[in-house]
Amino acid sequence: MVSAQLTDGEALRRARDAIEEHGWEAVTMEQLAAALGVSRMTLHRRGVRREHVLRALGALLQDDYRRALWPALTAAGSGRERLESGLRGLCGVTEANLALLAALDSAERDEIFHADGEQVLTHAVFTEPLQALLRDGVADGTLALDPGDSVEEVATVLFNLLAWTYRHLRLAHRWPPARAAQAVTRRAVRSVAA
């Protein structure tokens, strides 16, 4: 049974804050329960485990990402302009979740972002908006893919190029958000510019 707290965005943001503060491996169910506004025993009785919290945070991240990309998907302008806007939105979501993404181990990040299989792509929920923007840009002549490239693979590369590099510049190099966003967005767009 999924607890109502795992569908409450504000409660989940507090749980995200607890994970950011303590790290995924160190955060306790008691700390997560307090962040969710219930007791640890309430979570236990409802069958809520750490992996349920992780899945709920993944769903919250997906919702944040959809909201951030929606303006680019519905805006007027060229595919290139809209792709740049969408990539800036991705930087914003990455910024809002910097500490969470840093607190998770690769296995937890894989569960949120990667499809199953040998040579996997990023989950479609994260790349489909970029795929749509790429297709629009190719159609209007402002973006181009290399021969043999699939839009799905290019969207996966752009998503990872942007999110990982932005995160690295913010955390390891301590660049301010605007500088990191401008640097990665500009270079990512140039990589597919016509």
TrEMBL record:
Domain HTH tetR-type as annotated: residue spans: 12-46
What CDD domains does the record tag this protein with?
HTH_XRE (cd00093)
A GO term, aspect molecular function: transcription cis-regulatory region binding
Q: Do you know which InterPro entries this protein is assigned to?
A: Cro/C1-type_HTH, Homeodomain-like_sf, HTH-type_TetR-like_transc_reg, HTH_TetR
The leader peptide range reads none
Tell me the keywords, alphabetical order.
DNA-binding, Transcription, Transcription regulation
**Which Pfam family, any one, appears in the UniProt record?**
TetR_N
What name has this protein been given in UniProt? Regulatory protein TetR
Give the originating organism: Conexibacter woesei (strain DSM 14684 / CCUG 47730 / CIP 108061 / JCM 11494 / NBRC 100937 / ID131577)
